[in-house]
């Protein structure tokens, strides 16, 4: 009986850990894309200001 309870707790912990890992990886990739977009916009702005 005790092993069933510990297996259930391990399953719940694995599901919660997987969801948290998924969310953090999604946030990390979105943050990386935002940083790349900001750098890209800054480069374009510097190029436009340099030309004009």
**What is the 3D form?**
rod-shaped
Give the proportion of residues in helices.
over 70%
Integer-rounded radius of gyration: 22 Å
Contiguous runs where pLDDT drops below 50 for at least 5 residues: none
Transmembrane segments: 6-23, 30-51
Keywords: Membrane, Transmembrane, Transmembrane helix
Q: Could you write a compact summary of the structure shown?
A:
Keywords: Membrane, Transmembrane, Transmembrane helix. The chain has about 50 residues and is an all-alpha fold. The protein has one helix and no strands.
Structure notes:
The protein is built from one helix and no strands. It is mainly α and 52 residues long. Keywords: Membrane, Transmembrane, Transmembrane helix.
Topology readout:
Blueprint lengths: L1 H50 L1
What are the key terms here?
52 residues, membrane, mainly alpha, transmembrane, single chain, rod-shaped, 0% strand, transmembrane helix
